[in-house]
Structures are given as structure tokens and as C-alpha cells.
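Deliverable D4.2, example record:
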Amino acid sequence: MFMPDITSAPLALILVAVAGYLLGSVPFGIVMARLFGLGDLRRIGSGNIGATNVLRTGNKPAALLTLLGDAGKGAAAVLLARAVVGEDAAQLAGFAAFLGHCFPVFLGFKGGKGVATWLGTMLALAWPIGLAACVTWLAVAVLFRISSLAALAAAALSPIWALLLGYPGYVVLSVGLALLIFLRHRANIERLIAGNEPRIGGKT
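Output generated by the structure prediction step:
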């Protein structure tokens, strides 16, 4: 009830998982930083490869393109898998794309925190859940001006949104992705508890 029925052939699911992972591994932050002459993103700010760290360089177009690229790869993985294989493959592809962003083979398995890819994945899987997650992120970000707190709140509430909005088949995936987001943000959580987590617009 809380996850899709597995109806696709095992080989098809394996291929979907590999393709989704490789697509998710494309480091758009690194690519945009190089295209815009910003240097090695891993040596800037927090060292993260996501859009928030790109924004710390002051280059808003590069940050926007990174955000769109990271979200887009999650959405593309879901939509392609759904069109070619089925709903079970779509969820697997989204999960694999998220893992690819967090642990990219192209960067020695040292990637980002996956928030943009997660949002793109959820928007493609079930846009009401994705939209609710985006609104949650925005509301918390506006209130507290802390990107990590907004991401954690949005991730934590996503399984609840799935239930309330009538998508019980996405609960297991939502819980799994939320747990991984919390794991990837463990350093942020420590700083939040200590009261020294950087705010949106800060340079560090």
C-alpha cells in the first residue's frame, strides 16, 4: 500500500537503476562553475557541489542553472523510466538519481546533499507532493533564512504530504529519501543545534 507494486522485469529495473544513477551523478554545480570561470566549486564556500554553494560565489545565473540541472536530472530519470518501463521503475529511477547526486561515480563518490534532485524527483513523481515540499521549503526559508533547515523540514514532512494528498504509494520512497537527506545534512544539524548554521545570503 505504501509503495508501488513491483510489476517490471528484474533486468529492466536493474538497467533503470544504473541509468538513473549515472544521470544523477552528473555534477551540474561543477560543470557550471567551470563554464562561468568560478574555479573548483569543491574549494569554494562549504565545498558542496549544489546550487546553494554556487550562489555563494555571487553568480546567480550559474546558481540558477545548477538548481535547474540538479532538479532536472531527477525529474528526467523519473519521467523516462515511467514512460519506458512503468511506475515501479519511475520510483527506482528517482531514488537512483538521488544516490547518484549524493555519491557520484564521476567525483569519487563525494557529492552533494541532494535537495534539488529530491525536489525534481518528487515533482515528476507526483507534482502535488513536490509542490507541497517546495512550499514547505520556501516557507521555512523565508521565516528562518536557513537553507538547510528548510530542506530538513520539507523532507521530514514529505511522507505526511504523500498521505494527506492521496499518494500512499510514495510513502516508503519519501521516508527513504528523507532519511538520506537527514544523513547528508548531519553536519548542518550539528551547526543548527549549536546555533551557528550559515543563513541564506551568507558567504560561508
